[in-house]
Amino acid sequence: MNENVTQGVNLDMLRQRAYNLRWATLPADVIPFTAADPDYPGPVPIAEALARYASDRYWSYAPAEGILPFRESMARFYNEQRNVPAHTDRVIATDSAAYGIYVVCKAMLNKGDEAIIFDPVDFLFGYSIAQMGATAVRYATPQTTAEMTFDGLEELITAKTKLICLCNPLNPTGKVFSRQELTVLGEIAVKHDLTILSDEIWSDIIFAPYSFTSIASLDEAIRKRTVIVTGFSKTYGLAGLRIGALTSFTDEMHRRLMDASLHNATIHGANTAGQIAAVAALDECKDWVTGILRHLTEMRNLCTVGLNITKGVICQPPEGCYVAFADITATGRSSTDIAELLMKEARVAVVPGKEEWFGPGAEGYIRLSFATNREILAEGLYRIKQTLDSL
Ligand SMILES: Cc1ncc(COP(=O)(O)O)c(C=O)c1O
Which CATH class is domain 2-41+286-389? Predict the structure, then answer.
């Protein structure tokens, strides 16, 4: 499996199909470590399931919540692999995790409301909150995987605060939240009557010895106010199929999410092919996940070692996510300057720690995705080292 992953990267395909700041959008000599989207091809059982489904030649409207096999597989996954008592009737298939985040914000926020997000964190949370005319209140978190006590969080909560957004594991820092940390956060949400949006799209990508805990597994009071957002872009490389899921734990929350989604009106809805692919991912790809985790652990080690022997760069190994968040403050340059320099001199694309990507707390850092093979990663790291060592 490891070898297949390593040997499977097809640059011709990536140059045709991989958009969002990646191969298809860049000159041929540039190596992109940008959007967190794997370079290796996806699992074979997913391709086979899609081929079988396509051969029937029926593409009818599906149920607004998603097809039953999708909702059943998701619920089974949460019960069996996440210790979360999810119910088939409270799973909604969405056309991506990104849309899932948007739907939760739409369901819970009115104009003038406030929602707490971490800083740094992926831009999608702040973006969706702003779409509702609400304000994202940023809670400064470590740029590293350091333990969090949530001191000062309650001071940010006002009468207008309705939602708290948890990203676990945390993109971009790679932090995996411990049971203890989640308990503190969950109790704050209960005390202040806040809904918890728990984005768990990265929850398969956890490096030993760390392990994933869903905040919805803690207790009933916390679970009832939680909506889990997930997707299939990270573990299975299905970003182009735009498939994700929302899972909630009360009928009232489920109704609100359905209303906000516009699925009943057929204005939005997850396409059936994406759902078929997701069922195959959940039911038939356990070996695949084990294989990529072994590979990604090697890539994580290579990436952090390569960055740490580069002048002016410090990089803590992430506990989860296949991104490295590297401190470049010792170069004396801004993250934008370093990203531009790496593009120009090293011909490597990275994501600068700009406010628009991760919030103001990301300045002084760059993010690199290492979901590629050893050869590409080693070449990119070598080029980065050559460029920064000569500063
Ligand atoms: C934390 C987080 N949530 C959501 C997404 C978006 O996933 P999707 O492709 O399913 O919209 C990403 C992608 O980078 C992510 O990192």
Answer: alpha beta
342 vs 258, 321, 345, 351, 385, CA distance in Å? 44, 23, 5, 11, 10
pLDDT digits (tens, 9 = 90+) for 211-269: 999 999 999 999 999 999 999 999 999 999 999 999 999 999 999 999 999 999 999 99
Q: Which burial class, exposed, middle or buried, applies to 288 when counting CB atoms under 10 A from its CB (0-12, 13-18, 19+)?
A: buried
Domain boundaries, the chain: 2-41+286-389, 51-284
* Coil/strand/helix, residue 356: helix
Quick check: CB of 201 below 6 Å from ligand 1? yes
pTM of this prediction exceeds 0.85:
yes
**Angstrom distance (rounded) from CA 208 to CA 146:** 16
The rounded distance, in Å, linking the Cα atoms of 117 and 130 is 12
| Ligand 1 mutation target, pool 171, 175, 197, 212, most atoms within 8 A of CB | 171
- Top CATH class of 51-284 equals alpha beta
